[in-house]
């Protein structure tokens, strides 16, 4: 009985360090992890430089193996510290962690896979765990909810923009014609999209005065169109405000709990 309690205690402690960034130990762990990730990415980048690779091949290889082993230990520590390992293994971060650890091992069997270690750059997404103070995680949740709530409006808006580009492209095709580069309606629609989004590659340009006038209107219109999705999402964000922390459920890994929460909102497990 005592051994079971002891086992539970160290798992809870390990879970608190690995999955939560509110505690000093959790923040320290995440900072060390991010340093290791950055170091690993830098090593891979340096190894791609022939002169550096030839001179420091042994050092780079040993350093990369050390980091890979550390990441492997961390990956399994994440698995054993939760009640339902599959929740982590098949989660977004779980898949990223696995994909960023495997390439070095695969390089032993398959040549050319070592460069895939650069996938560890994706693990830098964990920086948001350090930044997930109550204010930041609350705002991130608001942003996600705002995106979901406004997806229908944005879809309608994008459909409208697409129709507008077709109309404007057709108009420019009729005004400019093939002699000025507008050889077809699809090509003219391409020009309209490039112009409306204010990208302006310059590979096609109107030459007639009226065509240039229409192009000027489209450019000005583009600035207003760019602002519309931002306004839609911002409007939705103002409707919600949540005070949350980084506390992660030891059972299902659900986070985003309020500061005074005692039980997981997702599965009901008591929080640490």
Automatic annotation (TrEMBL):
<feature type="transmembrane region" description="Helical">
    <location>
        <begin position="28"/>
        <end position="46"/>
    </location>
</feature>
<keyword id="KW-1133">Transmembrane helix</keyword>
<dbReference type="GO" id="GO:0005249">
    <property type="term" value="F:voltage-gated potassium channel activity"/>
</dbReference>
<keyword id="KW-0472">Membrane</keyword>
<dbReference type="Pfam" id="PF00520">
    <property type="entry name" value="Ion_trans"/>
</dbReference>
<keyword id="KW-0633">Potassium transport</keyword>
<protein>
    <submittedName>
        <fullName>Ion transporter</fullName>
    </submittedName>
</protein>
<dbReference type="InterPro" id="IPR005821">
    <property type="entry name" value="Ion_trans_dom"/>
</dbReference>
<feature type="transmembrane region" description="Helical">
    <location>
        <begin position="58"/>
        <end position="77"/>
    </location>
</feature>
<dbReference type="GO" id="GO:0001508">
    <property type="term" value="P:action potential"/>
</dbReference>
<keyword id="KW-0813">Transport</keyword>
<feature type="transmembrane region" description="Helical">
    <location>
        <begin position="154"/>
        <end position="175"/>
    </location>
</feature>
<dbReference type="GO" id="GO:0008076">
    <property type="term" value="C:voltage-gated potassium channel complex"/>
</dbReference>
<keyword id="KW-0407">Ion channel</keyword>
<keyword id="KW-0851">Voltage-gated channel</keyword>
<keyword id="KW-0631">Potassium channel</keyword>
<dbReference type="InterPro" id="IPR027359">
    <property type="entry name" value="Volt_channel_dom_sf"/>
</dbReference>
<keyword id="KW-0812">Transmembrane</keyword>
<keyword id="KW-0630">Potassium</keyword>
<feature type="domain" description="Ion transport">
    <location>
        <begin position="27"/>
        <end position="239"/>
    </location>
</feature>
<feature type="transmembrane region" description="Helical">
    <location>
        <begin position="213"/>
        <end position="233"/>
    </location>
</feature>
<keyword id="KW-0406">Ion transport</keyword>
<dbReference type="InterPro" id="IPR028325">
    <property type="entry name" value="VG_K_chnl"/>
</dbReference>
């Amino acid at each position: 009985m005592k051994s079971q309690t002891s086992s539970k205690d160290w798992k809870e402690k390990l879970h608190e360090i690995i999955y939560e960034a509110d505690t000093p130990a959790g923040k320290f762990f995440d900072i060390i992890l991010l340093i290791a990730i950055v170091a690993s990415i830098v090593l891979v980048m340096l190894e791609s430089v022939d002169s550096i690779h030839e001179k420091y091949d042994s050092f780079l290889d040993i350093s990369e193996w050390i980091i890979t082993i550390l990441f492997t230990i961390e990956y399994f520590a994440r698995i054993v510290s939760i009640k339902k390992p599959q929740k982590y293994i098949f989660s977004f971060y779980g898949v990223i962690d696995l994909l960023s650890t495997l390439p070095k091992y695969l390089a032993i069997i398959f040549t050319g896979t070592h460069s895939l270690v650069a996938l560890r750059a994706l693990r830098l997404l964990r920086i948001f765990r350090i930044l997930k103070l109550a204010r930041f995680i609350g705002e991130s949740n608001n942003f996600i909810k705002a995106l979901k709530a406004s997806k229908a409006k944005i879809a309608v808006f994008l459909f409208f923009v697409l129709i507008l580009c077709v109309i404007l492209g057709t108009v420019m095709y009729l005004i400019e014609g093939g002699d000025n580069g507008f050889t077809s309606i699809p090509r003219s629609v391409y020009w309209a999209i490039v112009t409306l989004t204010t990208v302006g590659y310059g590979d096609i340009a109107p030459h007639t005065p009226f065509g240039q006038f229409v192009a000027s209107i489209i450019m000005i219109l583009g600035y207003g169109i760019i602002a519309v999705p931002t306004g839609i999402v911002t409007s939705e964000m103002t409707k919600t405000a949540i005070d949350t922390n980084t506390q992660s459920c030891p059972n299902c890994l659900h986070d985003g709990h309020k500061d005074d929460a005692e039980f997981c909102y997702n599965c009901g497990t008591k929080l640490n």
